[in-house]
Amino acid sequence: MGHWNRIKIAKCQILITNFFVLLLGLSLATMTVVTHFGDHFTVIGHASLQRNPYETLRYWAFYVGISLAGLLSLGAALSTIATVREAHGLMAADCLQSIRNFLWTHYRIASTLTCTSLALTVYAMMLCAFLWFAIHSYCGLDRRGRYSLTPRSHGCQPQEPSLF
């Protein structure tokens, strides 16, 4: 694998990682807001104590969570912008080439397996037909409608198998 291909693959991995970091930041922000404004925590926060230490902890956790979510999202966005800007439009093309090569390899494997299984199915069908004709020509129906292993009764004697 060439030097440029490794760089392009690394850039694709950076973009994918940035996407997941952005999702992590958004989910952290969502969790922080739901926790802060949720019914269970709001009731505890508004308890009528003169000095409620929980209220201070609740606000501190909310601000830290929102700040951390903002930093994660900002870092992911800036890293993505820097990666795309440095690539000068080549990123979308490494990425697509790598995906195309990956899919083409799997397409060849799948088509080979499909053709092989189709050929084996046709071969099995021909063997089944040959077996059915062989059994049907050797066995005959008796008067009750069942197959018997005796030769047919129209005077034909079974032939011995030969090489030709």
From TrEMBL:
The keyword Transmembrane applies. The keyword Cell division does not apply. GO terms for biological process: blood coagulation; cytoskeleton organization; defense response to protozoan; hemostasis; integrin-mediated signaling pathway; negative regulation of myeloid dendritic cell activation; negative regulation of T cell proliferation; platelet aggregation. One of its GO terms (cellular component) is plasma membrane. Keywords: Membrane, Transmembrane, Transmembrane helix. The chain crosses the membrane at residues 12-37, 57-81, 109-135. This is Tetraspanin 32.
